[in-house]
Write a structure and sequence with these properties.
Helix content is 53%, strand content 16%. The protein is an alpha+beta fold. It folds into 2 domains: 92 residues, no CATH class; 57 residues. The strands form 2 sheets. Strands 2-1-5 form a 3-stranded antiparallel beta sheet. A two-stranded antiparallel ribbon has the order 3-4. α1 runs antiparallel to α4. 13% of the residues are buried. Bound molecules: zinc ion (ZN).
């Protein structure tokens, strides 16, 4: 395994971990809100904001942590994790791209053109057994067609 792949995987795992912790924290907040009956309160907004500042001993961790801290931290973790995941994904796509020669399936057109495609995308659609792409606009006849992949090159 090369160093770059290892780095990519580490970043991906970190992104997912942060994302999951963020979701768990926000889930905990939601559950506490639910538990306190906030959602059945006649004035949900003020019940929510009051509940944010209540110290629940079970989640305070001896540091006086309140739901407001969990909410902020949860959102921050979600954002950071999400940004890491998106950044990693873009990098992988740039690294693993192939140039595909596509062909319009319309008998009167049969126009061929090249387009960059992600390796992962090709793999997930079942290439090379499956050779038709999802709906594209043909650059020549301007019809929406399902282009055939003639060849691919890296
Ligand atoms: Zn065409």
């Amino acid at each position: 395994m090369s160093m770059t792949i290892l780095k990519k995987k580490t970043g991906y795992a970190l992104g997912i971990t942060l994302f999951v912790i963020g979701i768990i924290m926000l889930g905990l907040v939601l559950w506490k809100f639910w538990d306190a009956g906030v959602f059945s309160s006649p004035d949900i907004l003020s019940a929510l904001s009051a509940e944010l500042w209540v110290v629940h001993t079970d989640i305070a961790l001896g540091m006086g942590l309140k739901l407001v801290h969990y909410s902020i931290l949860g959102v921050v973790l979600l954002l950071v994790g999400g940004i890491i995941l998106v950044a990693r994904r873009e990098k992988i796509q740039v690294v693993e791209e192939v140039t595909a020669l596509l062909e319009c399936p319309r008998a009167r057109c049969k126009h061929q053109w090249e387009e960059p495609l992600g390796k992962e995308q090709l793999k997930s659609m079942g290439y090379p057994q499956v050779r038709t792409l999802s709906r594209h606009k043909c650059p020549k006849c301007a019809k929406f067609i399902r282009p055939k992949i003639v060849t691919t090159r890296t």
